[in-house]
Structures are given as C-alpha cells and as structure tokens.
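WARN retry 2 of 3 for item q-0093 after timeout on previous attempt; input resubmitted unchanged.
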Amino acid sequence: MKKITVLSGKGGVGKSTLTASLAVLLAENKRKIVAADCDVDAPNLALVLGLRQEGSDSWKNVQTGEKAELIPEKCTRCRKCYENCYFSAISWEKGPVFDPLRCVGCGVCELVCPAGAVLMRQASNAKVGMGKTKYGFSLISGQLDIGESGSGKVVTYIKNKAEDFAEAQGADIILADSAAGIGCPVIASITGSDYIIAVTEPTPSALSDLKRALQVVSHFSIPAGIVINKHDINPGLTAEIERFARKKGMDILGKLPFDRKFVEAVVSMVPVVEYDKKFLKIFSEILHNLETCSALR
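OK item q-0093 returned
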C-alpha cells in the first residue's frame, strides 16, 4: 500500500484542487484508493468530492485531547496551578477556575499541584466523518471543534482510520490532503508517507514556504516531487522553482496554468477534471510522472 501526501507550505496554492482531481483520476483508472482530508482546521475535500453520509453515525465525536479538571475538595488554594498556566486557562475567584476553551491539555497544572487536586481527563475535541464519495472511493475527513486544539492528534487519528479502511477494502493507495504550513498537523500528515507531492506557485512567499516545508519532508527522508500551479503568471520564478528542484534532485511532476476554470470548479464544488475535460491531459501527465518515479508502484 502506497501512502501519498499532498502539501504546500503556503495556503491557497491549489493543494486540495490537485488532491481532488488526482483522486478522481486514480479511481477512474481502476486504482483502489482511500482519500484522507488531513486539514482539520479547514477541511473541504468532502464538499468537492461529495461525501455520502451513510447512516446517522457517519460523523462521530473523537477524543484525542485532554482537559484539566479541578477536584475542589482536594484543593488547598496554593495558587501554583494559576501561577504556572502559560495559556491563561486558569483564573482566580476565591480559588482556581478552569476555562476549558483556553485549556490545551498541557498538564502543567496537574504536575505542579502538591495536593493532587487537578485531574487530566479525555475530552472530545473534533468530529471525524467517513463514507463513500460520489466517485465510488472512500474518504475520511475531520474537523476540530470550535476553539479546540490538538490538530496533530486528530490528523493521526484520521490517518489511522484511513489505513484501517484501506486494509479492509483492499485499497493500494492512500491519498492525503495535508494542511498548509509546517506545524503539528503537517508533521502528522507526512509521518509514515511513502511520497510527497509538494504544490507551489511562482510567487516569492509560495517558494519560501515550499522550501521550509521540504526541509520538514527531508527530515523524515521522504522522496518528493513538485507541482507548479499557475506556472505562467511569472515565468522567471517558475524557472527558479525548476532550478531549485534540479538542485534538490526532485522531479517537476507537472505545471498547471492560470485559468478561471479552476475558480469556477471550486465554486461549483466539483473537481476541475470533471468541470472541464480540457484539464484531463495535464492531470493525466502528473499521474504518469508519479508512476515513472515509482510513487504509485
């Protein structure tokens, strides 16, 4: 089973657009795939791919985090929890008052309490949905609850569920759409991946963020290739990205044009290869290049 993760560094460069279209083409080419939306702060693959909710339990609350809870009868009002809470999740009103929205579950209050009056309890912090898309393959998606933290742990939960789905269905590819940036959810997304598709665009910020993201990928020694979106808006920076790829020994898997049809497809909540068939050739070439570099074998 191959685990492929799509990331970008900078947000808004076309990562989810690429993931959705590749997933559809893989399914049309008779590849058994499971898609996973690992951008739990702003998931959107379920919208684009048409996740069919099968039964009332298709979306479930999950507990991947902890919250501090006070045991009042044990509290000696020593103020140590209040003084040591870095996140200002504890206020003082004749005693400590814990704010569950500010608590990130770090456990410092439990550690410093000499009376054992603080207990860390599992808390529901996200919802995860699973089901079939309208294109016939399974999708796992998740979203943090409002004000909650622990996105990296939620991503790990989603990836584990995707592996369970893939094994049960005999799938040979897990295609994951990562969050933007280089933080916890991205690290959780790429951990255990066999190949990384890095999406960028020819702008200074996108190239800078691409380099930072690929430094994280390099730390895990995962092979990667690059897709350049809107390559024709700045030929000079596109050439610089290509030089960077050659220097790093990475393949340019494909280049997508700047085209209003991409925006129209997003607004219509349809993968762009379905919205306009003229893009089939470009995305098929990306799939061919993935096969050539053994990412799909």
